[in-house]
Structures are given as C-alpha cells and as structure tokens.
Amino acid sequence: MSYLTIGCRSGLLVRAVAMLTRMSSPRTPLTRLLTVLLAGLLAGLVLAVAALPGNLLAGLATRAVLGAFDDLPAALRTPATPQRSYLYANDGRTLLTTFYDVNRTDVPLAEIAPTLRQAIVAAEDRRFYSHGGADLRGMARALVANVTGGGTAQGGSTLTMQYVRNVLKSDPSRTAEEREAATEQTVGRKLQEIRYATELEKTLSKDEILNRYLNIAYFGSGAYGVAAASQRYFGKAPADLTLAESALLAGLVQSPDEYSPIDGDRDAALKRRGYVLDSMVATGAITAAQADAARAEKLILHPTAQPNGCTATVTADAGFFCDYLRRWWLEQPAFGATAQEREQALRRGGYRVVTSLDPDVQATAAAEARKVYPADDARALPIAAVEPGTGRVLALAVNREYGVGDGQTVNPLVSGGGSITGYQAGSTFKLFTMLAALENGRTLSTGFDSPSRLTTRFPAEGEASCGGRWCPANANPARMDGYRMMWDGFGRSVNTYFVWLEEQVGPAKVVEMAQRLGITFRARTDADLAAHDADNWGAFTLGVSATTPLDLANAYATVAAEGTYCAPTPVVSVTGPDGSTVPVGQPACRQVLSADVARAATDAARCPVGQQSAYGQCNGSTAGGVDGIVGRPVAGKTGSSEQNATETFVGFTPQVAVAGIAANPDDPSDAVGAAVQGEVITAVARTIRTAVDGLPVRDFTAPSRELAGNPQRPAPRPTPRAPEREDQNLPLDLLRWLQNRRG
Predict the structure, then answer these.
(1) Which of 96, 161, 270, 491 has the fewest CB atoms inside 10 Å of its own CB, making it the most exposed?
(2) Residue 73 burial (C-beta neighbours within 10 Å; 0-12, 13-18, 19+)
(3) Which segment of 54-63, 211-220, 377-386 scores lowest on mean pLDDT?
C-alpha cells in the first residue's frame, strides 16, 4: 500500500472521526447501533495504522499533508506566549500590581505539585510517556467512548498535540487568521498538528513538553497556566496544591468555562474531579484509598482576582507611582520601537520589575498628605521622594485616589505630564539663583542691604511696577529688610536680596541652572520664556515657573549629592521571562556642579530649617521646626507663590530629598493660603524622617573657605538719636503729629 493511499484513507478517517465526535443530538436505537458498528470499523483502522513502525507513521503523517514542511514554527521551539508582568516594591517582595492581557505566568516543572502533573497526564493523555506525539490508539478509544455516549466525554488529542494547538492559537507573531486556523475542524489542520507534535517530541523531552503544556493550558475564569489557575481558585502557588485541588484543576482543561467552580457549574467540576481521581488510580499514580479520601474532601475555594494595571494596585496608594513607571516604560527603546510595542511588552512580556518605591516612605507620604487634605478635597498635596546619587524615586504620593471612579483621578499630579504642567513653587527657586551666583564668582558672604522694595531693570506694569519697572517687595519687611548675605538671605527668604543677586548674575544663567538640575518647563509660556527671553525673566528667582514635586525633589537631590545629577528612575531592576537582566533603569548620573558649589548651597540651606551653617551664619528660619522632627543634619527651603496660591517645602539629607506642594491642580486661582504652610512643612519633614530611619547619620561636608568668603557683617547702623529740638516741650499730641509728618 502506498503512502498516498494510506494518507487518503487517513484523511477519510479523520473526517469520520471529526463527524462522529461532533454527534451530540439524541439518537434512535438503530442509529446508535449503526454508529457503534461504524465506530468499531474506524477503530480497527486506527489500530491497524497505529501498529505501523514509528518512523513509518511519521512519514505517513508528513506525506499526508499537502505541501512541504520545513522546521517547526519558531513559537513551538521558543514559545512566545503572553505572560503577566509583575511590579514589586524595592524590597523585591511587596507586590504592587501586575500587567497582563492574558493572565498567565510560567513556572518550572519543579514548582508544580507532582499530584497535578500526574492528574493532567491521567485525565488528558494516559499514554503520554509512551507515544511519539500522536496516539492513534488513544484516538480510537476516545472515538468509541464518545460515539457510544457512555461515560465522560474523551478527547483524542495527546498533550503534545494540545500544546501545539495552544501555542499556535496564541502566538502573537502570527496573524489573527493564522491563530484562528489553529483550531479549525479540518483534516489538514489535524494532520499538521500531528506532524508538529511528532517533530516536537524529537526535539524536547517529555517533561519539558508537560511543563510547557501546564504553563499554557486554559483553566477557566481567566486563568492561563497552572500558576494563574492555582492562585485564581485556591490563592496559593502550584507547588502547594493538594491531591483534591490538583484533580479539580486537571479536570478543568477539557471544558474550562463549563467546569469552572467560580464561573461555571460547581457540581460538574466535582464530577469531573472524581473522573480524574479514578483515572489516576487507573494509571497507578495513587491508590483507591487516596482517591476516596480526596473525593470526600469539600471543595473550598479561595478565589483571588489578579490585579491588572495601575488602577488595581495591591499596595495602597501606589497608583500614582505605578502610572509614573508606566509612562517611563513607554519611553524605553529596550521594550520596543514604538510606544504600542512597549505597551504590549509590559502587558504580555512576562517581566519581573523591582521598582524603586519604598513601601514605608510611600505609606508615610500618603498618610501625611491626607492629614493636610482629605481624599475628596479639591486641593491636593502631592509629595515626591528621591534618593540622591541614584535618582531612584522612593515615593510619589498625594491625598487623592488613583482611578477612574467618582472622586478619583489618573492625572499625574506628582510627576507631571499630560495636562499637568505643575505648580508654582515660590522661593524654593532661590536655590538656583544662589547656585548660579556661587558658580560665577560670588561667595556665601556676598552682601546687600536689602530694601523693602527693589526697583529692577525689568519692565513691568500694574501693582508690581515702579515707574514702569518691576519692583518686588519683601513679604515681611520687619524680619527681611537690612544687610543680608546668602546664609540669612536664604534662611529668611528675602525677596529683594535674591532678585538683586539674580540681576548681578543674569536671569539666563539662573534659568539654565534650573534646567541643568532637571527642572522641566511643561507650560508653554514658561518654555517660551526660557528659550527666547530668559535674560529678562526677572521673576524667575521667585518661583513663578510651574514645576512638579518630583522635578523639585530631584533638583534638590542633586545638591544633596554634591552636584551629581541623576535622571529620576522608577526601577531597580527589570528581568525578562528567561531570567536575563534588561539593561534599563540603572542610575544615569553626571556631575553638573562642582562639589564645592553644591556644598556651599547646602550650607546656606541649613538656615531655613533651624540648623546652623558650618560658618555659624544662620540667624533666621522659615521652617525651624524641621530640625526637631528629622533629628539629624537636614537642609531645605520653603516657598509661597503670589497671594499664597501654593505652599511648598523641600527638605533633604545626604540620603533623601523630599518635596511637597499644596495646590489646587484644577484651579490655580484657588489659593491654598498661608496657614497650610506649616502643615506642608510637617508632612515633608515626617516623610524625610521615615526615609532615613535606620540609616546611619551622615553630616554635610562644609564648603571651602574660598566659597564662604569673608563672613564679616558690617557694624549695625546706629539708630540716629533725635537732636535737641525746640519742639521737645510742645504738647504731646502736637509732637506726635510732627513726628508722623516727618516720618
């Protein structure tokens, strides 16, 4: 008999098998008898073919398919099946969330309970370890069982054939039409499946095929693979499954939607579990007594819904951080050439991402933000924490809830992006003026007799205009006016001192310094000024440009790291599904300031928080309580925008920088008011305290004497003594009138 003849008969056989196995309508006794006779005939043919030598059978299958077969599809050699990506906190254990289109994760065979392995083989392919990929005897047995209608329905496909089908129908590299064709009820497709299964068995070991099958099979209720299934139904790892649980899961793969005890028929699932247990007894995997004991167990489920995306984070209040990570991910070429490919990689690539988020710092920042404003308040207090020297983002928290429901938002309130351009941060921008001045030859001792109001060279109109020139004023003349150096000018936040200093250096250099430290101008008007008219941006030093807590914290972290700027990053490591490390997220740092300039600015920044500079020049503060809260060397700066529309505080130690800005993200005209400044300072200071808890106490390095300059203040001007005047003996009320007139 020629191969072609056998192939044609095999094709007729497969057609008949497909036809008979689809027979499910009620049959008359005569019809049933004829069906049984035909089934017996077909079974005999199958068994006759099955008796052929293995190599002859392989050749038969090969030649029965029209067209030539080259090597196995790449997806069968190296599966490209979609897998969940996991996001963890920086401890590598605390789960934040997962991303997936298909809920599945690969696990090695050693991490799957032996009872589940045995149950799958017993239920789906008892001759798995003896056939060569296609089991024609098993097909005949299934055919007879199905057409006679006795017992539980059986399938004729081996585990290897099922694996081939599962891979081809889910391979993301194939077209939708190709994936659909993988499950067609046609002779050609079935013979192709047999061919691939036979070839695959020559390439992979039985255990490897079983492992791959267990990782791709659908178990119902949205769970693909045993890892997802054991978590979905029992809330445990597949290694911890009991015999009864293993039998239940193994029984689901034949009809996942029908048998699922969560979404389908619970009684049908238990009946199918009993069938699997009986099959395990038949294969010798377990004893009858073990089967009876497992059958008697009550079905106790612990359904676990796997989180998916940033709106479903497991770790409370991590949604805004998750959103920042996702935006960062979509910019990384390592995950694809386009944003769409990178999104697909996150949702289907099976990555393990250890993020930079510190759960304790995140929890503290979120709790402190909610002490200031409740979650449903129109106003917000976004807080960001960054690690100096690495750029790793330790926390992104806000009092709002991340989500798409009522009272929730998915706007990146802490990190910026989309419609969020940021918030004015007030006098925190004086740091950039001080750095630019120090870098351009000034010293910390640079002095100026600061007036209550300073007329500048910058044109202006309105209330802030003096003869057509911008003339800013000090917020509190009684404690700000007078001779100031950088130390107490920064400590007391003297507007006229820093506007004067900015004029001396040139606003363009101050703007460039801010950009060098990572300040991004997201608002179009700010970007235009920075690009085209920076040297006339006199108000820049007073923090009129919009920024975000993340940008601000990272800029101050650059000073804390003695001039080393590190691009902010939300990850510690990213591992691919094969265990390889993806080269992304490592600290990307460069020196943008001399260490001495950064140390000098830090020395002045000790003043606002109630500490003392290395040269003993601090004599006033705006956030003096920070010293007592943090309890170790700390520096920082407050900031209030015009009319107290926003209130800001940034604090830092050598190990962490934290920034918080109170604002109404949706209505800049809704001023938060000066009264909230103390609460913002406290929230940031407590977040710093949590971040450094348990870390060694580190002090700041003092700047050089060269940059300190000569911190000698001029002798205070004597209060002029009133000369002897004729009016000394005038009536008191008249004397006061004259004094007021002279004043």
Answers:
(1) 270
(2) middle
(3) 54-63
CA distance 635 to 659: 12
CA 717 to chain CA centroid, nearest Å: 59
- The three-state secondary structure class of 646 is coil
Over residues 31-52, the mean pLDDT reads: 44
Residues in the chain: 743
Q: Which residue has better confidence, 733 or 248?
A: 248
Cβ atoms 312, 97 nearer than 8 A: yes
322 exposed, middle or buried (CB, 10 Å; 0-12, 13-18, 19+)? buried
- Give the pTM: 0.79
Q: Give the residue among 606, 517, 603, 601 at the shortest CA–CA distance from 564.
A: 517
SS (H, E, C) 343-383: HHHHHHECCEEEECCCHHHHHHHHHHHHHHCCCCCCCECCE
Summarised one tens digit per residue, pLDDT across range 268-306 is: 999 999 999 999 999 999 999 999 999 999 999 999 888
Contact 709, 438 (CB under 8 A): no
**Range of lowest pLDDT (18-27, 203-212, 627-636, 671-680):** 18-27
Closest CA to 514 of 625, 417, 387, 601: 601
Look up residue 288 and give its two tokens: 């009858």
Q: Which residue intervals of 517-645 are DSSP H helices?
A: 524-532, 549-560, 595-605, 626-630
Distance (Å, whole) CA 545 – CA 532: 15
